[in-house]
From TrEMBL:
Gene Ontology MF annotations: hydrolase activity
Keyword Hydrolase: yes
Domain of life: Bacteria
Alphabetical keyword list: Hydrolase
Record has Phosphoprotein as a keyword: no
Domain named CN hydrolase: residues: 2-263
Lineage: Bacteria, Bacillati, Actinomycetota, Actinomycetes, Mycobacteriales
Residue stretches in coiled coil: none
Listed name of the protein: Carbon-nitrogen hydrolase family protein
Pfam families registered for this protein in UniProt: CN_hydrolase (PF00795)
Amino acid sequence: MVLAAAVQLEAVLGDVSANLAACERLADEAGRAGAEIIALPEFFTTGIGFDESLATAALPPDGAATELLTALARRHRALVGGSFLCRDPDGHVRNAYLLAGPPGGVVGRHDKDLPTMWENAFYTTGDDDGALATADHTVGAAVCWELMRTQTVRRLRGRVDLMMTGSGWWSIPRWVPHRLFDRLERNNAGTARRAAASFAQYVGAPMVHAAHAGTLTCAMPWLPLTYRGHFEGATLIAGADGTVVAERRADEGEGIVLGEITLGRQPPRLDPPAGFWLHRRGTLPTAVWHYQRWHGRRWYRHHVVQAT
């Protein structure tokens, strides 16, 4: 059995220094508790929302985010991973999940395959398989809505001994009519937790999932509206059979969750469906997925990508 930790972060949108400090404090708490695996959430340097500050908040591959991950791995002799907006030498930004391990080097990197909704405004796609080999095990890395897609299962199923994942999953706002949007949000929150909790059963490996909590206020792409909502949390640790051994709810706020897992591959308990999605998105998320993708790709070309 190995003690694992997942961090639940209340990020300050676009404030890299503040978020790095919070992640170090929380990861140190996990390390002092004896965790040998420490997962930070997606966008641990910036948080996520449609905010122009993120256009200039990407860090280089060898920058402060990587320095933090490697320092934590060395300090606590642990596997430490999380994703951040990473500007590569080609001028593009990617949502890069970096895994560091003792004695303090980078084990590997996974770039999220498809940006989700307004994320299209801040980074481009990735195409690696997400299987990162350490000296003793193979770790599968996946980020947020990658846990919603059958293609993620196909590239990792039966190949990894541990899943390290993170998310920045936001709520559906409470617009009018309240009864309708409240129902949509209940479904959205349920999907966020189900996607994280069930993924271990699709790949046959234990799961350490870090996430964001707290409120979010930002602009809405192409609409004269302000988004006001919150992050869904779903920070949890699950065994390869899908049993959730530890969890921190979103309403518990920032902190860590600790749980013991057994590393290694097991026969997957669930078969993925035949289509593209593991879980139903719902009508509103489907519509927002498309319109914000169209908007975001154009916004990214004009505001984020840099010529080399």
